[in-house]
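User: Teach me something about this protein's shape.
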Amino acid sequence: MTGQLIVSVSGIRAETLQRAQEFVADLDRREIPVSLLVSPRLKHGYRLADDRPTVDWLRERRAGDDAIVLHGYDQAPTKRRRAEFAVIDAHEARLRLTAADRVLEQTGLRTRIFAAPRWSASPGAVQALLPTGFRANLGFTSMQNLAAGTAVRARVLGFGDGFPDEAWWCRMVVMNTNRVARRGGVVRLSVAAKHLSTPLVRRALLNGIDLAVHHGATPATYRGFTAKPVIAAA
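Assistant: First, the predicted structure itself:
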């Protein structure tokens, strides 16, 4: 799996939906599919199931070439203020995965692909994925096809979800994207939707995308990484 470009957007909710839609429209004009990272719950009482405009848009996008990826259950920090799935055991992970899966099934967004908040899943969380029906785990430095027992090393670059959005980081993202794409590697660009209102971030992302395509990277989504049974559900 080389010479690919995978773009993902997380944190999509009523308040950020328009920003996400505008950014995805820019990707559409470039014929770039997108992976949409979805959480059933977020802070301040947000519930995906109650956000009909966002659910309808996500379902519309998934009906095309885009992929849905489960991005945690409620993203609440666990012990030691770590990300939701970063330090929990398999039992707790199974409870959270099952609850999240139920919500996505009810909203018509069920997926077999998982990416932990901040791309950090504990060994126990990874252990719980296959028994709860998930076939792929997307980490910070690698992508695991759990069903096939294979993995591809590729680091996430982006904004939000643990990444900064300062000018120096924008330059770093573009430079590293150019380097990986030039070598024929897998470029993984990610952004939390709330950061799409920052012109510098948006410009850096689009510059990185254009550079990756210029170097021959093939646009893809995370559903293309998984086995055929996962593709059907993603």
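Now, about its shape. The chain has a mean pLDDT of 93. Residues 14 and 226 are 29 Å apart (CA to CA). If you'd like, I can walk through any region in more detail.
User: That's plenty for now, thanks!
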